[in-house]
Amino acid sequence: MITLTTSRLLLSPFTESDWPFFLRLRSNPQVMRFMGPILDEKALRNVFDARREASGVFVLRDSRGEALGDIGLRISSKNPHEADVGYALLPEAQGNGYAQRSAGGCLPLWICPARR
After folding, report:
1. Which of 41, 53, 105, 108 would bridge with 6, disulfide CB 3.0–4.6 Å?
2. Contact at 8 Å (CB) between 12 and 61?
3. Nearest by Cα to 24 from 57, 66, 84
4. What integer pLDDT is reported at residue 116 of this predicted model?
5. Rounded CA gap, 38 and 41, in Å?
6. Residue 85 contacts by C-beta under 8 Å, 6 or more apart in sequence?
7. How confident is the prediction along the chain (116 residues), in pLDDT tens digits per residue?
8. Which residues touch 93 (CB under 8 Å, ≥6 apart)?
9. How far is Cα 38 from Cα 22, in angstroms, rounded to an integer?
10. Is the full-model pTM beyond 0.90?
């Protein structure tokens, strides 16, 4: 299990203990307003379980270990040479540059998966 660090963040893979955070994050209308409809708890659990199994998907944590959001890379199903970075941050964590910093922290791993 790889944990990445930036100057202000810890990026760690999802674990079972992150479920309450993920549910709170993905049930928040302010977070989901640009991402799509809020899913019911069963559907969110399926998304969460998939994230736990995925590589290149991380929980963003502050220096105290508090979860702030998540970030991941999705490879296009139509073109394996194309990918999108997706992220979600709690409202109180937005506007602090966390998405940019975490993407920069993940970039070496995404570019060179052998580092996993």
Report:
1. 105
2. yes
3. 66
4. 47
5. 9
6. 71, 72, 73, 103, 106
7. 577 667 788 888 999 999 999 999 999 999 999 899 999 999 999 999 999 998 788 999 998 999 999 988 877 788 878 878 889 999 999 999 888 887 766 665 555 555 44
8. 60, 68, 69
9. 12
10. no
Residue type, 13: P
Give the homologous superfamily in CATH for domain 4-115. Gcn5-related N-acetyltransferase (GNAT) (3.40.630.30)
Which tokens hold the place of 76? 């296009």
> Tell me, what's the pLDDT at 23?
98
Amino acid at position 26, single letter: R
Give pLDDT, residue 103: 77
Take residue 14 and report the two structure tokens written for it: 């999802």
Distance, in Å, from the CA atom of 57 to the CA atom of 15, rounded to the nearest integer, reads: 11
The conformation of residue 55, written as its DSSP 8-state character, comes to S
First to last CA, the chain: 8
52: tokens are 């736990």
